[in-house]
Design brief:
238 residues; alpha+beta; 2 domains; three-stranded antiparallel β-sheet; 5 helices; 6 strands
């Protein structure tokens, strides 16, 4: 963002303009506005008209500055940073997918979060599920950067897919000659594997219950037929 407020005294501007000019450049847009003090008797703070036009110029500058800050915030919470490398971005500034070597020189997958100051903080999948790790990373990011609650909730419910780490690993190994083993992805996909197993188990239970239900119905029908036959025979013999 580039912003400036400039005063042109008599004779300063080529067109003869006297007063304040406010300019701003953000989001590839250029804005400017002029506030004339030509009617002022004295071109300084002692003149009421001069002070009035100066205040209007300062108000315009503050308004555009607020617009610029809001634009920067919207970009921060809804787009990857322009310098984000391939397969790392998750849709916001300050959080990226990451692989690094730990103290044991073993590769780890993680979410990398850039705080407001200092070095990035890593959130690994060693002791937390994929969802838990994402929540921890986003909450830290939101607290560090003063993210509004609505935007925090939106990001929390829009995690990247675990497959993004698979693609990042392939990219780093193939394009940058890394040696990240496939086993590094195991903690990333642990929650997904568990969900698949639970779904399979649920389907088996449903199938078993249906079999049990159909078997019970057949037994009930057979018992009813036998009971009806028995009652018929009794009536014949009585």
């Amino acid at each position: 963002m580039n912003m400036a407020i400039r005063y042109y005294a008599p004779g300063d501007h080529g067109s003869g303009f006297i007063g304040f000019r406010v300019t701003v450049v953000f989001n590839k847009n250029y804005r400017q506005s002029y506030f004339s003090t030509s009617r002022a008797e004295n071109h300084n703070e002692s003149d009421v008209h001069f002070r009035y036009e100066k205040l209007k110029a300062e108000l315009q500058e503050a308004t555009w500055q607020a617009d610029s800050f809001l634009h920067q915030y919207r970009v921060f919470v809804s787009q990857n940073h322009s310098t984000t490398k391939p397969f790392r971005g998750v849709g916001v500034h300050g959080i990226t997918c990451h692989f690094f070597r730990d103290r044991r020189n073993s590769w780890q997958a993680a979410f990398n979060v850039q705080p407001s100051t200092g070095h990035p903080k890593t959130f690994t999948f060693c002791s937390r599920s994929f969802t838990e790790t994402w929540i921890a990373a986003v909450e830290f990011w939101a607290e560090q950067h003063g993210i509004l609650n609505d935007d925090t909730q939106r990001v929390l419910t829009s995690p990247p897919l675990p497959a993004q780490f698979k693609e990042l690993r392939r990219h780093l190994n193939n394009e940058h000659r890394y040696d990240i083993p496939v086993e590094t992805l195991s903690p990333v996909f642990a929650e997904q594997r568990e969900e698949i197993l639970q779904k399979k188990a649920a389907k088996k239970r449903q199938h078993y219950n249906r079999e049990e239900g159909s078997g019970s119905s057949a037994s009930q029908k057979a018992a009813a037929v036998i009971s009806e036959w028995f009652e018929t025979e009794l009536s014949r013999n009585s």
